[in-house]
């Protein structure tokens, strides 16, 4: 199996046709077709169903594609690192984060790094929390930012950030006039939210069940920004994490506090047995500082509280309580 075969396979998967792949690779169409046939002959099974100029990937092709992409990305990382070494520079900083955190926190944190510490090149991978963990375990990235749980023996959790979820409504929605939206006022409203049932979605579901109307969720997505867009379209009231609401603002909507505090937890993690660069250490602290500036009510917790935080029930918002305490950047509850 040769590199040009993997590149041809990846291009066909991306383009959806041999002709499109040839255009991407700047090779001849017959040449790409022969390369794919050679690859299929070598591995012993068909990768595509042929239908004229277009091809349809087989189930096996999709399984192989995930591996091939990892390999090709790895080769690109090696290339970038080799060039950095030749320039006597630090290698690129590689970050994996869930999409909301990648968009809201990472660019702002990177802008805080001092010139002598900031990397010349940065790669940011937006992925699910499970994929963030996998990227760290495979050493594909240097640092990960993801929602809890993040309890893995091979990872070092540096701290946990907690901030309350919010409601996002269309600007012309009657609820937009209230500074705080009471959960009971959503009883007869459509609700849009995130869909991962083992992370934030679980706590949102618990809050709605306590209010007696769990069936009100009519729009679920793996990306909270999609829920916000549903609110913009007057399709639903979005109950989402504050990183999305405050970090990627959308025209035509307003963000309001909820009377029930639904905690949004995320952490910053690195490989436990991998030495950290000055850029990684600086980014870890910058993420903390940006979190406190951007997210109202943000609290930093010691990593040792991971399990305790996840076991605490959703509670009504209180004044001067632990959950309304805002700790300075670097301080831990």
From TrEMBL:
Residues covered by the HTH lysR-type domain: 1-58
GO terms (BP aspect): positive regulation of gene expression
Name of a matching Pfam family: LysR_substrate
Keyword Cell wall biogenesis/degradation on entry: no
Region (Disordered), start-end ranges: 301-333
Family indicated by similarity: Belongs to the LysR transcriptional regulatory family.
UniProt protein name: LysR family transcriptional regulator
Organism annotation: Trinickia symbiotica
